Amino acid sequence: MATLAGAPGALTIERPDGQPVHVGPVDAFALETRAKRLASRSVKRESKRAGLLLATTCIDLTTLEGGDTPGKVRALCARATRPDPDDLTVPPVAAVCVYPALVAVAREALQGTSVRVASVAGSFPAGQASIDERLHEIRAAVADGADEIDIVLNRNALLAGRLEVVRDEVAASKEACGHAHLKTILETGELGSYEMIRRASFIAMAAGSDMIKTSTGKLPSAATPPVALCMAEAIRDFEQQTGEAVGLKLAGGIRRSKQALGYLAIIAETLGTRWLTPERFRLGASSLLNDIVLQLRFQTTGRYGRPGDLPVD
């Protein structure tokens, strides 16, 4: 399934259909330097509003807590469709992401809207259940109305070098999704290096993932500009080899509008404006939306609102 070849860090991965894809090495210094430059770009006032509205349409508004209730999910869904009740020009978010047990609640609350229902499934966040249990949970979430499924990559197998196991589990998850889109979470904070992040990205894409995602949001180290750039470059190189366009979801620690705008710059410069759509780019967050709304209100009124005026998830 996988062979080391060529330069240090190079790898060839065989897809389930037998087609090989080639994973090149990563220049960590160049990656971090470029990521810092792109993420720190200043944005003019007119472009800032457009960027904030775009970022809003790409948010997966998320609640993944043990205390989640149907009432909390319904309130989140209402907020997803009307992020700012005082400004109807602020568009709905891309999706609401919940645990499988609450998918049916979200499906009912979002009926007739453009907001999609996403669910973590497959033994989130550790992914340590048997593959049969994980696939059962995926199928159940889709049956309850999930449009999108976020699974976690088998990092145990990845770090042990059992790459074929990782690939086959993602491929089986994709099949279990049926019509639903599959996002594969790499949990980059546990992978140890950009080389391993790039390798995990390619395996997930080769196995059929519609999107690759940084993090569960359950670890301190999650989305960062260098990690986002590393994954975006993997997506770019995968498309060049296969002709297939895979999406990117950044999640974990994204709370401020400035961060979101920096990530938009990284995506635009690396993948082009074709990726600046909810179909190919997502921001997994909850508190980010409030900061965007406050920034948009400031753009309109010249005054900063109070965070306490907005919901707290």
Task: Detail the topology: elements first, then pairings.
Layout: E1 2-4, E2 11-14, E3 20-23, H1 28-39, H2 45-57, E4 59-62, H3 70-81, E5 95-98, H4 103-109, E6 116-120, H5 131-143, E7 148-152, H6 155-159, H7 163-177, E8 181-185, H8 194-206, E9 211-213, H9 225-242, E10 247-251, H10 257-271, E11 281-285, H11 287-301
Helix pairs in contact: 1-9, 2-10, 2-11, 5-7, 8-9, 9-10
Overall SS class: alpha/beta
Low-confidence stretches: 3-8
Number of domains: 1
CATH superfamily: Aldolase class I
CATH level 1 class label: Alpha Beta
Q: Please report the number of helical segments.
A: 11
CATH architecture: Alpha-Beta Barrel
- Stated plainly, the CATH topology is called TIM Barrel
Question: Any overview of this molecule?
Answer:
It contains 11 helices and 11 strands. The chain has a single domain (2-64, 72-301), classed as Aldolase class I (TIM Barrel). It is 44% helix and 15% strand. It has 313 residues and is an alpha/beta fold. α9 (225-242) links the parallel β9 (211-213) and β10 (247-251). The protein starts with a strand and ends in a 12-residue tail after the last helix. α2 packs across α10 (257-271), α8 packs across α9 and α9 runs parallel beside α10.
